[in-house]
């Protein structure tokens, strides 16, 4: 079995978000979970070929299986390209716990369809949120738009946490134990904090997911997909079939660039994409 370590949402080694990728024929989920716990990437993807156009992909954090993972999907199709299981400039489909989704590979740029976008509960206890993240509650929100903390999903539920300034974003210092309990109670994976106070891209973000053993991630495709839909519903983003750039990982020294796109104006969906670079590959025995 081939095993890869791939940095996703970057063109530079040690940038972006690293993922483990295993291309397998016959593994059980108990082994997958133990392997993911052993290598301890935020997510490890396990790919099984169905036919030349279709693949089944299972995603595991160090502690549990998750329905979908954006950066591990980008890494997966980079591995499939490298192993000659797929060809460039083509469209493929992946079967996941979030449904069967399309993935387009174009000049090594990989862009994936997200699951049906949804918005959920609004979180208006700013006193609690400010204590949880150790910030001034007056920094929650946005100066130009009426943005509030709200759950959103394009495959995985996260709480979108708007912040007024980049300084506030970088100052976040969450109580990870309390945050894990808070997200568990509210049936979300984590919190995706962001600010529109950036000179590059649409927004800069930080993602916290201690419930799944991930204190902070450098690049989260599904979370930025959900953020794209959230910003669309709040009239920040209005154009379809246009690429939007989201920055993440800069506070961790792992700069990442996540590209999103709104498609299908009559029934909006989100695409998320980026590039990836192979750090190492080998055999899994």
TrEMBL record:
GO CC aspect terms: cytoplasm
UniProt keyword Isomerase present: yes
PANTHER family: BIOSYNTHESIS PROTEIN, PUTATIVE-RELATED, PHENAZINE BIOSYNTHESIS PROTEIN
SUPFAM superfamilies tied to this protein: Diaminopimelate epimerase-like
Protein name (record): PhzF family phenazine biosynthesis protein
Assigned protein family: Belongs to the PhzF family.
Active site location: 43
Pfam families given in the database record: PhzC-PhzF (PF02567)
InterPro entries, A to Z: Phenazine_PhzF-like
UniProtKB keywords: Isomerase
Keyword hit for Endoplasmic reticulum: no
GO molecular function terms listed in the Swiss-Prot or TrEMBL record: isomerase activity
